[in-house]
Design a protein that fits this description.
Elements: E1 8-11, E2 14-17, E3 48-50, H1 72-78, H2 81-97, E4 102-107, H3 127-142, E5 147-153, E6 166-168, H4 171-178, H5 180-189, E7 193-196, E8 200-201, E9 204-205, H6 210-219, E10 225-228, H7 236-242, H8 257-264, H9 270-287, H10 304-318, E11 320-324, E12 338-342, H11 344-347, H12 368-376, E13 381-385, E14 394-395, E15 410-415, E16 426-432, E17 436-440, E18 452-462, E19 466-474, E20 477-482, E21 485-490, H13 498-504, E22 508-514, E23 517-527, E24 532-541, H14 547-556, E25 560-566, H15 585-597, E26 601-606, E27 621-624, H16 632-641, E28 673-675, H17 684-690, E29 707-714, E30 720-721, E31 728-729, E32 732-739, E33 745-754, E34 762-771, E35 776-782, E36 790-792, E37 797-799, E38 804-810, E39 818-823
Helix pairs in contact: 1-10, 2-3, 2-10, 3-5, 6-7, 10-16, 12-16, 14-15
């Protein structure tokens, strides 16, 4: 019996029956990845696993693999809702096969700035494009009988002090821009869950922000579960009264039994608990996790080879060709005898940023270098040099470590805590192929909320004496020992930054000379009881020669050069923002130097954000590849040889310099508040308002053919002025597009709208066309009904501005295009 559910106090002939608290336990998680079951409510446990780039291991175990999907920005670059839905189906299928009820994704926050550490997960700077594609991803996932959890509501685009910072956003900007993608997803795809962000919005933490949650539940009539981000709650009554339904992870600290206690004490109305339980029960119904229920049948299940083919198609469609001088691409293998491939990302591509949601690739992984060699065949000599050293230290396994018994990897051990009364005992040990470990809840051999020690032991074999950088870190006091000599001690993180340190896999490092032969490296971390524990060890040898020299040697004698540069996994990461949109200086130096010795230079940029490209005018071609998923290699080789054509369009504006980034120079004030007014309007609207031309505009992209926009006009049809909250239906534009090139191609026609009295245009529609060489097609583009709304702060309501609206049909946000008008 749930406490208070049937107990009463008899007074005379009357019985005072307490509140109905049935199912209160559902509102608090069970552990790091599961909800709590309730026999009274007939609800079973439900597994919630992180995404959205692939399924994350519950135990953060590198042996637990999953397909790595294209990042949100890569998917947005396709401008293809159907293809995005297919990718959603893939991750939904993998979730279904692993018994997952809900996948934490998509990330519908907007990359207000390319400096955001987590921008790679996000789709686009435009709220309409983000909403349409995010909703497609949700539909794909949920078609497999697995739920999607759209995150993070809202204005969660700054990683610096993300758990304490305050986003100050004007009501109109909040509703029209930052909430808009979530509203689109709710209206069109009904995600089973919405996740509230860590940050504050206008002074109140999102998980306890009744105004925000009221918009979701009352204005949008959202019927799903509203869940906290992990450890994102710090007040029982505040969260419960605001409308939060589920606290994660478990065991619950603020909801669950405390939700019931707050109802009994009169601090939270009983109907609020019933609402939360009803929503969680509805989630169980949808997921087939009611007692005796069955998981819904999937829409489609793909065989492994079909899954890989889908990822190749998605990667190809995401590539954006920014430059192609003299039509250098596609490369003709018959005209090339020697091809130089340079750049660290050719042999070690980057698929994702550094987050808790790191995905270990499943199955065969073909690097861009290997795929290029295979595609060009034995008749072409393919040479490779990295040309630049890693900018950060590597895991011990990446530098060739072995465990003490000689097995490749490291020895990971969990030990009993050191005490005066008993010797340290090894409680758990295994050889692993990683050197960073995270445990939410139970630690192997120790259990949950208990003290102990974790230890990593590895051996490095050096042919000659060398200077190395070694590093250690974790959630407790960490020490680094080399050949039995204590060389570094790292203090524990500040209590309010433990999760940030874990997310960043943060270490302190030292540099020392190591002798030739076998060197033993030991990192040990003493931890106190806690809900998360982590230990990390890193290493990197000092560069004894400039790798650029060798790269230039092969570039100078090659018929063409492919340079593959971009991010490392740690350069874009959760819980830390960037300080510049530039690539690592070594990458820029490499590109510039190669272009100086070989005019036939093609650059592939493997970075999932807007980047500065100071050398773009000096190379023949620039291909933006983002974080395109684990089929990057095959997709890239297909595009370089012309077997496929790049058709992506930019989902974010590329600035010419850092100073052109919206909000550049504006940071958190002493109260940790970020005033969004300093960066609004952001994205392409920022470039419109400031007359600062972007390096490459939103919506821009080339192909292997050329297109001409011949004409455009508003299409006939019934225009319906609906309730202002629902916008205006029935508006469409018809455009004629001609392929003036000599190969078939794919183009994306875009419609931008401007309300009466406004100065800037906003994206309100788009459509893809496939056109044969020399042919002309007509495209009909439906205009977004919600794009006609504006939020009136005076009326605290939506309005549709009346008068003449301008609709500009164009091929990118900076293209003057063809102007149409409609009167409302």
């Amino acid at each position: 019996m749930t406490a208070g559910s049937a107990a009463g106090t008899e007074v005379g002939d009357a019985v005072n029956v307490g509140p109905d608290l049935t199912g209160a336990e559902l509102t608090g998680g069970l552990n790091g990845w599961s909800t709590t079951a309730s026999s009274e409510a007939g609800v079973e446990e439900m597994v919630l696993l992180d995404g959205p780039l692939g399924l994350v291991s519950k135990a953060m175990d590198e042996r637990d693999t999953s397909l790595v999907m294209p990042s949100g920005t890569a998917l947005a670059a396709t401008w293809n809702p159907g293809l995005v839905a297919e990718v959603g189906q893939l991750i939904g299928q993998q979730g279904r096969e692993r018994g997952v009820s809900v996948i934490l994704g998509p990330n519908l926050n907007l990359p207000r700035s390319p400096l955001s550490g987590r921008a790679f997960e996000m789709f686009s700077e435009d709220p309409f494009l983000t909403g349409v594609l995010g909703a497609s991803w949700v539909e794909g996932v949920q078609s497999q009988g697995v739920g999607a959890c759209a995150k993070h509501v809202v204005a969660n685009d700054t990683e610096t002090e993300r758990r304490r910072m305050n986003s100050r956003v004007e009501p109109g900007t909040l509703r029209e821009t930052y909430l808009r993608p979530f509203e689109t997803a709710v209206r069109t795809a009904s995600p089973w869950m919405l996740l509230m962000a860590y940050n504050r919005v206008n002074g109140t933490h999102c998980a306890q922000n009744g105004e925000l949650i009221g918009i979701l539940k009352k204005d949008w009539k959202y019927d799903g579960v509203v869940v906290s981000d992990w450890f994102g709650v710090d007040d029982t009554a505040g969260a419960a009264n605001a409308g939060l339904d589920l606290e994660m992870p478990g065991p619950a600290r603020y909801l669950g039994a405390r939700f019931a206690d707050a109802v009994t004490a009169g601090e939270v109305p009983e109907p609020r608990l019933h609402d939360a339980v009803e929503r969680l029960t509805r989630l169980a119904d949808r997921a087939g996790r009611r007692t005796g229920g069955t998981v819904p049948a999937p829409a489609l299940l793909r065989a492994p080879e079909e899954q890989r083919d889908t990822l190749v198609r998605a990667a190809v469609a995401s590539f954006v060709l920014l430059e192609n001088k003299d039509k250098v691409l596609p490369l003709d293998p018959a005209r090339i005898k020697t091809l130089a491939v340079v750049g660290p990302n050719a042999a070690k591509p980057c698929f994702q940023g550094g987050t808790f949601a790191t995905v270990r690739p499943e199955g065969e992984l073909v690097t861009p270098l290997d795929a290029i060699r295979d595609a060009f065949g034995p008749d072409v000599e393919v040479l490779y040099e990295p040309g630049a050293a890693p900018s950060s230290a590597l895991s011990l396994t990446e530098v060739g470590s072995t465990a003490p018994d000689g097995t490749p990897g490291v020895l990971m051990e969990v030990l009993s805590p050191a005490t005066d009364d008993s010797p340290v005992e090894v409680l758990y040990s295994e050889i692993r192929q990683a050197s960073a470990f995270v445990w939410f809840g139970p630690v192997p051999g120790v259990g949950a909320n208990a003290p102990g020690r974790a230890r990593i032991t590895a051996r490095l074999r050096l042919d000659t004496p060398a200077r190395w950088t070694l590093g250690a870190g974790g959630t407790g006091v960490s020490s680094l020992t080399v050949d039995g000599r204590h060389v570094l001690e790292v203090p524990p993180p500040a209590p309010d930054d433990v999760m940030g340190v874990v997310a960043r896999a943060e270490t302190q490092q030292t540099t020392l000379d190591l002798p030739a032969g076998e060197v033993e490296v030991v990192v040990e971390m003493a931890f106190q009881p806690g809900r998360v524990q982590a230990i990390t060890a890193v290493a990197a040898p000092e560069q004894t020669s400039d790798p650029l020299t060798d790269a230039l040697a092969i570039a100078a004698r090659a018929d063409a050069v492919i340079v593959v540069v971009g991010d490392e996994q740690g350069s874009s990461r959760e819980s830390a923002d960037r300080t510049t949109a530039a690539l690592d200086p070594a990458c820029d130096r490499l590109v510039g130097a190669v272009a100086a010795v070989n005019a036939e230079t093609v650059v592939v940029v493997n970075a999932s954000r807007a980047v500065l490209l100071p050398w773009a005018d000096r190379v023949k071609a620039v291909l933006m590849a983002w974080f395109p998923g684990q089929e990057f290699g095959r997709a890239l080789a297909s595009v370089l040889t012309g077997d496929s054509s790049p058709s992506g369009r930019l989902p974010v504006s590329f600035p010419a310099r850092n100073e052109d980034i919206p909000g550049w120079g504006h940071t958190l004030d002493p109260e940790l508040t970020l005033d969004y007014a300093a960066s609004e309007p952001m994205g392409y609207r920022h470039h419109q308002e400031t007359d600062r031309a972007p390096r490459y505009p939103f919506g821009y992209g080339l192909g292997y053919t050329e297109f001409v926009l011949v004409d455009a006009a508003t299409a006939s049809g019934a225009v319906k002025n609906l309730n202002p909250a629902d916008g205006v239906e029935g508006v469409a534009v018809q455009a004629t597009v001609r392929n003036s090139g000599d190969t078939r191609g794919h183009d994306t026609v875009q419609v931008y709208g401007r309300a009466p009295g406004e100065t800037g245009f906003r994206l309100m529609g788009f459509a893809a066309v496939d056109v044969a060489a020399g042919e002309t097609v007509k495209a009909r583009i439906s205009v977004d009904p919600l794009g006609f709304r504006r939020w009136s702060e005076a009326a605290s309501a939506w309005v549709v501005p009346s008068g003449d609206w301008e609709l500009r049909v164009s091929r990118n946000a900076a293209d003057s295009g063809i102007l149409c008008r409609i009167s409302l």
